[in-house]
């Protein structure tokens, strides 16, 4: 069956192909094809594309029970029955299966999705913990993380069943955004295991950014890790994944010249303004910036480099503007409170917006009464909105002598030098592949954790049984101190005997050869001590509570 497995590229769909009345949709991200249909998850059909580009016919009907795609055989063990899964949930602290849980990413980015949809899904940083808790509480999801920026919205999860995990995440996305699952599937990309790992590493390295090599995305990935480490639902696997992604991002920027000449979203916005304004650019027009965060700071920096020496910054508080005045003493930066926003806009020819507001700040009825822009901008007022959700309503474009641009319009700026971008990306990919191997080796080393616990559980059960036998043959007048000494002796013997095997079951994952040997040792110990039938104490207690 042509299922989508880890590290294997799914056969390409024929866009718009129809089989049994199902319209197939395809989104290609990197080496992976994302599949879906106009019916959501039910009746998804794969069509294989021949060398001539024509459909060769359906290879597999992926629809299964409950409208879900059929699970790969290697994953069927994970959902054998509802009762088995409930037992599994009760022993959550010691979850393990014969097949590792899948790491998946489901997301939408500027490459595949218009800003109108991305802004509905955007989750502010303050809400990330809530989103993680809600996602990780789903039945088939162990861990969850949210990466939400102006250019992308991505959810990373560790799922015990990848197809049911996909269903739960997409339903959560639909519920929180108000977008139907069918509409989401038109734009959603889904990657799992090594493909998901590679995607995050490319994101952290700036290879998946609209602006190749831009540095802000690495800081955003770091922030996801920082927030996630304070939330229980952001577990060990995602912590390791994000740490390795940050390492990859740092190495790419240090060992290649990918950041040389790279621009940020803010600098691309300034370049767009220069392209749209009459000769003389930003140095001749009246400029206003709404917001004083990191993006606005970069706007100020790049506006000054283009010859703009005076600008008004409208912000809720004054302190950040004072900091900018101190950092850029050669420019005249004027602070205005948010209550003066419309007045300042009426005096400006070029308005940049970069705030965290979840509702538009500029509506048609507010702007249409403003005085016209000056002749320095040709009488046209330009709004460049780099916020997601957007700060400027799209309907402003209907007004005469008003132009509105958002982050999707920045593609025009970065379309040049495609060949140079490809060459730099190829150099970075070598580093990313190396870091993927390191992460996979580390994750493989985690497989020994259940064996370590089972071996200790087995040894403890034997120790307690033999201790009880011993004490039953001892005089009844043994003091508590004597009994404690005998118990300490039994513990000491067990710990000494376990020391060697435990050392051979531990690996930090940095050496693939060492990891391989550790896995071999794990299997050998499981056979020797028949650990396959050993039940952890915590599982026994969980079952006893039913």
TrEMBL record:
InterPro entries according to UniProt:
4pyrrol_synth_GluRdtase (IPR000343), 4pyrrol_synth_GluRdtase_dimer (IPR015896), 4pyrrol_synth_GluRdtase_N (IPR015895), GluRdtase_CS (IPR018214), GluRdtase_dimer_dom_sf (IPR036453), GluRdtase_N_sf (IPR036343), NAD(P)-bd_dom_sf (IPR036291), Shikm_DH/Glu-tRNA_Rdtase (IPR006151)
What does the record give as EC number? Answer: 1.2.1.70
Tell me which UniProt keywords the record has, alphabetically: Chlorophyll biosynthesis, NADP, Oxidoreductase, Porphyrin biosynthesis
Origin superkingdom: Eukaryota
**Which catalytic reaction applies to this protein?**
(S)-4-amino-5-oxopentanoate + tRNA(Glu) + NADP(+) = L-glutamyl-tRNA(Glu) + NADPH + H(+)
* Biochemical pathway: Porphyrin-containing compound metabolism; protoporphyrin-IX biosynthesis; 5-aminolevulinate from L-glutamyl-tRNA(Glu): step 1/2
Q: Which PROSITE patterns match?
A: GLUTR (PS00747)
Kindly list the biological process annotations in GO that this record carries: chlorophyll biosynthetic process; heme biosynthetic process
The chain positions of domain Glutamyl-tRNA reductase N-terminal read 106-256
All copies of domain Tetrapyrrole biosynthesis glutamyl-tRNA reductase dimerisation, residue ranges: 428-531
Pfam families per UniProt: GlutR_dimer, GlutR_N, Shikimate_DH
User: One GO molecular function term?
Assistant: NADP binding
Is RNA-binding there in the keyword field?
Answer: no
- Positions of the Quinate/shikimate 5-dehydrogenase/glutamyl-tRNA reductase domain: 281-413
Membership in a protein family: Belongs to the glutamyl-tRNA reductase family.
Could you tell me which NCBIfam families the record lists for this protein? hemA (TIGR01035), PRK00045.1-3 (NF000744)
Protein's recorded name:
Glutamyl-tRNA reductase
């Amino acid at each position: 069956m042509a299922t989508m497995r880890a590290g294997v590229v799914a056969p390409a769909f024929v866009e718009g192909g129809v089989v049994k009345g199902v319209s197939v949709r395809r989104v290609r991200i990197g080496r992976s094809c994302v599949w879906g249909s106009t019916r959501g998850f039910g009746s998804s059909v794969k069509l294989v594309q021949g060398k001539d580009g024509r459909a060769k016919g359906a290879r597999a009907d992926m629809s299964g029970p409950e409208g879900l795609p059929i699970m790969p055989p290697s994953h069927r063990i994970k959902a054998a029955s509802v009762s088995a899964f409930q037992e599994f949930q009760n022993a959550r602290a010691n979850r393990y299966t014969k097949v590792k849980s899948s790491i998946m990413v489901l997301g939408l980015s500027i490459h595949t999705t218009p800003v109108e949809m991305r802004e509905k899904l955007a989750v502010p940083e303050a809400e990330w913990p809530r989103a993680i808790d809600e996602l990780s509480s789903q039945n088939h999801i162990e861990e969850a993380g949210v990466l939400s920026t102006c250019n992308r919205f991505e959810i990373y999860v560790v799922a015990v069943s990848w197809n049911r995990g996909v269903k739960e995440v997409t339903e959560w996305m639909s519920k929180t955004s108000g977008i139907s699952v069918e509409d989401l599937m038109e734009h959603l990309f889904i990657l799992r295991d090594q493909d998901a790992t590679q995607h995050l590493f490319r994101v952290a390295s700036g290879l998946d950014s609209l602006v190749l090599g831009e540095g802000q995305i690495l800081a955003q990935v770091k922030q996801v890790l920082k927030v996630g480490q304070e939330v229980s639902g952001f577990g060990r696997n995602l912590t390791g994944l994000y740490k390795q992604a940050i390492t990859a991002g740092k190495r790419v920027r240090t060992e290649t010249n990918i950041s040389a000449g790279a621009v940020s979203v803010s600098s691309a916005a300034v370049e767009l303004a220069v392209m749209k304004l009459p000769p003389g650019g930003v140095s001749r027009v009246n400029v206003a910036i709404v917001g004083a965060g990191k993006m606005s700071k970069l706007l100020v920096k790049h506006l000054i480099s283009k010859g703009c020496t005076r600008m008004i910054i409208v912000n809720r508080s004054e302190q950040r503007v004072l900091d900018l005045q101190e950092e850029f003493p050669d420019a005249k930066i004027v602070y205005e409170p948010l209550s003066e926003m419309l007045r300042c806009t009426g005096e400006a020819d070029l308005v940049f917006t970069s705030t965290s507001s979840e509702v538009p700040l500029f509506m048609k009825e507010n702007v249409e009464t403003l005085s016209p822009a000056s002749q320095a901008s040709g009488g046209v007022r330009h709004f460049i909105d780099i916020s997601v959700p957007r700060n400027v309503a799209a309907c402003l474009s209907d007004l005469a002598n008003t132009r509105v641009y958002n982050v999707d319009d920045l593609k025009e700026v970065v379309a040049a030098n495609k060949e140079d971008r490809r060459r730099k990306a190829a150099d970075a990919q070598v580093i990313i592949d190396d870091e993927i191997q390191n992460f996979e080796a580390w994750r493989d080393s985690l497989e020994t954790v259940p064996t370590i616990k089972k071996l200790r559980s087995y040894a403890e059960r034997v120790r307690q049984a033999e201790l009880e036998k011993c004490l039953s043959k001892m005089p009844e007048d043994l003091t508590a101190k004597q009994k404690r000494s005998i118990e300490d002796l039994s513990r000491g013997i067990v710990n000494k005997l376990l020391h060697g095997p435990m050392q051979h079951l531990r690996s930090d994952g940095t050496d693939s050869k060492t990891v391989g040997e550790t896995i071999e040792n794990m299997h050998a110990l499981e056979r020797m001590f028949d650990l396959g039938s050993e039940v952890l104490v915590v599982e026994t207690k969980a079952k006893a509570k039913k």
